[in-house]
Amino acid sequence: MKGSSTNYSNTGVNLAQQVETTIIKKKGFAFKKLHAVEAVVISIALLFLVPFYFVIVNSFKSMNELLVDTASLPEIWRFENYERAWTVLNLVNSIANSLIITIITTSAITIISAACAYRMVRHPSPFNNIMFAIFVAAMVIPIQTIMIPLIKVLNWMGIINSMPGLVVSYIGLGVAFSTFLFHGFVKSIPLEIEESAIMDGCNPYRLFWTIVFPLLKPMTVTVVLLNALHFWNEFLLAHLILLKPELRTIQLAMNSLFGEYTKQWDLALAALVMAITPAIVFFFSLQRYILEGVTAGAVKG
Asked: Which domain covers residue 278, as residue numbers?
């Protein structure tokens, strides 16, 4: 009996050692696999950073040096390219125009979309359901298909070739997607919070602005970030609507460097660096809210 019990104990020890060895091997394989995935992701990230290298490096070169070799570092770092681009393009005026348009448009879209989505979710009706379906359908309509009707409407309203005309166009085109994002996120807000506020005598307007809207912060930041980056970089509609030189946005100002016979790449690249820097800083300051807002709206909705 002692021998058999000893054999059983030895068998148990061996089995435990085999299981432990198997677990260690699996962990080692998983660790190596993780490192391989990280290496691939880092390589892809570096590949996407290559265009930034070309833009930044070539923005400090002369036109002749830029045309000879775009990949090498500058022989002489010409910081005057930035000064010339700032002066020639009148970037102070262009940046101011872009800021005004972006801030007004983004603020209006955020407020309108949040209120609209809240009304649709909390007060369902056939009319609200139809309106939400129209918003969703509007998201798949290409902007190219409505360019001519849009320009005709703006001309009829007398706001063509003006900043209000561009702002109204941006708001009309941006409300649908923003409302869709808010619509899913509003569903994640517990209804009991609003019922408690109503029991305390809170009216509908105060309920939305003091109770509901602060709870929409993750999605609000997401909507603000996505719209601000889009309208800051938008070119096509601005090119169609804004014809006066004094109304140029920063994208239109850079486009003026490229004509039929001349292309001033040295100034354009310097201007491009100055144009994307605010957008990059703004993005990295708020990007942590994007995944949180979109995920919450998609999963809980």
From this structure: 82-300
